[in-house]
Amino acid sequence: MTRRILVALGVFFLASHASAQSLDLFTKTTTEVAPGVYSYGAFSARSLFVVTSDGVITTDPVSAKNAADMRAAIAEVTDQPVKYVVYSHQHWDHVLGGQIFKDEGATFISHEKCIPHFARHPNDELVMPDQTVTGDHDLTLGDKTLKLMYFGHNHGDCMLVMQVDGTDVLYINDLVTPYSVGLGFMPDYDPGEWLRTLLELEARDDWTQFIGGHGIPVAPKDAMVQRRRYMEALMAAVRDGIESGQRLEELYDTIELAEEFREMRGYKTHIRRGAERIYHYYTMGW
Ligand SMILES: [Zn+2]
């Protein structure tokens, strides 16, 4: 209970002040969000690791430096070896740098649809997956099961949402960055499928908080609802602009959402690029 109150207070603080102050993006912390379940990282990038009775499961290494720091953070809470590394999706800002875990014998897992991306865009710092999953999959190690959940195309096509069975916490990488508009212009996002995925996640009653791939250590479900509402507002505004005859350049210059969304982190920087992405979604069919 105390932890939830602290999280709520922290969320209130960030929501109230995030745009008014310069956030510390790079100080890494370890936060236990459920017994043996940890949010690790900084505002700039964040991962989940799980300590079980038979070893550790980590998610995205992010970079060689981050993986080394995360390995040290894991050693502070357990002397168990890291046995699995699970990639959330294919983007390099999350999956690079896992060699330190490979060296201690970890098995790497991703969704199978990540493999063509890794093949097309090779990177010397990427450890290729040893195993792939094709859909929902239970990864059991010792006394814990990490549920890997696949919702189809959304942020790319190989995103896995994760949940340690029996906890109310999800790891939702990049589909939501709490209280932020995120990089909605990325070309491999499918806005419609992304929104569908958020609605499917929102409809589930088996979670109340989540760890994002960037941002604060843990956020309440409301932060995902805010992102879903932002996306709906952005898509509606662009659709209205197109229907009233606006060209992209005009839309780009005039797009403005309701006050409540303007307070989200990154709004000023990304609203035009987000609108441009949605414009193409509606006018190009992608
Ligand atoms: Zn991504």
Description:
39% of the residues lie in helices and 22% in strands. With 286 residues, it is α/β, with parallel strands linked by helices. It has one domain (2-220): Metallo-beta-lactamase, Chain A. It has a 7-stranded mixed sheet with strand order 1-2-3-4-5-6-7, covered by helices on one side. Helix 5 (114-120) links the parallel strand 6 and strand 7. Helix 6 runs antiparallel to helix 7, helix 7 (221-243) packs across helix 10 and helix 8 (248-254) runs antiparallel to helix 10. It starts with a helix and ends with a helix. Residues 1-21 have low confidence and may be disordered. The structure holds zinc ion. The site of zinc ion has 4 residues, from loops. Zinc ion (ZN) binds next to loops.
Structural class: alpha/beta
Record field, number of beta strands: 13
Helical coverage, percent range: 25-40%
Mean pLDDT: 92
Major pleated sheet:
7 strands, mixed
What's the CATH H-level homologous superfamily?
A: Ribonuclease Z/Hydroxyacylglutathione hydrolase-like
CATH architecture: 4-Layer Sandwich
Low-confidence stretches: 1-21
